[in-house]
Specification:
- With 169 residues, the protein is an alpha+beta fold.
- Strand 3 and strand 4 form a beta hairpin.
- It is built from six helices and six strands; from the N terminus they run ααβααβαββββα.
- Strands 1-2-6-5-4-3 form a six-stranded antiparallel beta sheet.
- Helix 3 packs antiparallel against helix 4.
């Protein structure tokens, strides 16, 4: 009986983070997935944590002196806490399939903001839109056909994105 109770106590927090019925990005699952597969042959991973993204912001801040485009990029990066790039295109076909199935399970209950189809390519954009702050939190771009996953954890202001798009027209 004690073993069963201990098992149920340990299982509670795991099942609470296993699915995302409210559409949130399963950040813990994604980061543990990246850590698990980062040592496989053919997998390339780039991780920028808080310290590295802070350093990048500092470089952009110095470069933005007198450059309005760099200042806009800095305002876009303001809420970004960490960045992960996971590329598994060079893996064996069996490993690519296994990774693809695992990612599909991870994103099953996650809010899909947009899906872009271009001939054979498909890009899925996941995130959680916060109407109160007009920002997207924990932005994830997943392209199964290109075997790529890009995770931007933090918040990105929709007003800043709209302003940048207007300036690029």
């Amino acid at each position: 009986m004690k073993k069963l109770l201990l098992f149920l106590l340990l299982l509670g927090p795991i099942t609470a983070t296993a699915a995302s019925p409210d559409g949130r990005i399963p950040k813990t699952q994604i980061t543990s997935f990246i850590t698990e597969y980062s040592h496989c042959e053919g997998v390339d991973v780039v991780r920028l944590g808080r310290l590295a993204t802070g350093a990048v912001k500092g470089v952009v801040r110095v470069a933005s002196i007198g450059d309005p485009d760099a200042r806009e990029a800095l305002s876009l990066m303001k809420g970004v806490k960490s960045l992960y790039v996971f590329d598994y295109a060079s893996c064996s076909p069996a490993l690519r399939d296994r990774i693809g199935r695992r990612l599909d399970r991870i994103f099953r209950n996650t809010e899909l903001l947009m899906e872009v189809n271009d001939e054979e390519d498909r890009m899925q954009i996941f995130g959680l839109y916060d109407e109160r702050t007009d920002a997207v939190r924990d932005f994830v771009l997943y392209t199964p056909s290109e075997c790529a996953l890009i995770c931007i954890f933090g918040s990105v202001s929709m007003n800043t994105i709209a302003r940048m798009m207007e300036n690029n027209d």
